[in-house]
């Protein structure tokens, strides 16, 4: 599996917010998300930081079909716990002759979110662990 496949799987895990008994503790508006990934393994790979912005509208949060994350093709969601305060999940992905075990958490803190994803992989390149720290903050109205 390539590094991008793992990062995409980690960043793209989408669970319907409609599963929440209460509304997620997220203030609608324009959000800035930043993720920094470190790789531990035999192959030296420099840390990678990515950022993006998106608008989260109140209508999105009220919509039963709104999804905060996405399960990529080749991935299976094994466990998830969702509440108004955040989400914890575990999944496995298979691609290109490798396997990735993914554990993640995201805390919903009103105008901030923070969390992390740990990905342990077995691939033809060997064993490696990727640790991603994710932070988001509301920066303005949409």
Give the neighbour order of strands across the main sheet: 2-1-7-6-5-4-3
Q: List unreliable stretches of 5+ residues.
A: 1-21
Shape descriptor reads globular
Radius of gyration: 15 Å
Order of helices and strands: HEEHEEEEE
Largest sheet: 7 strands, antiparallel
How far apart are the first and last residues' alpha carbons, in Å? 36 Å
Estimate what percentage of residues fall within beta strands: over 45%
Helix percent band? under 10%
According to DSSP, the number of beta strands is: 7
Quaternary structure type? single chain
Number of helices: 2
Overall average pLDDT: 80
Structural class call reads mainly beta
What does this structure look like?
This protein has helices at residues 3-11, 58-62, and strands spanning 29-41, 48-56, 75-83, 86-95, 98-108, 112-123, 126-140. With 142 residues, it is mainly beta. Strands 2-1-7-6-5-4-3 form a 7-stranded antiparallel β-sheet. The radius of gyration is 15 Å and the shape is globular. Residues 1-21 have low confidence and may be disordered.
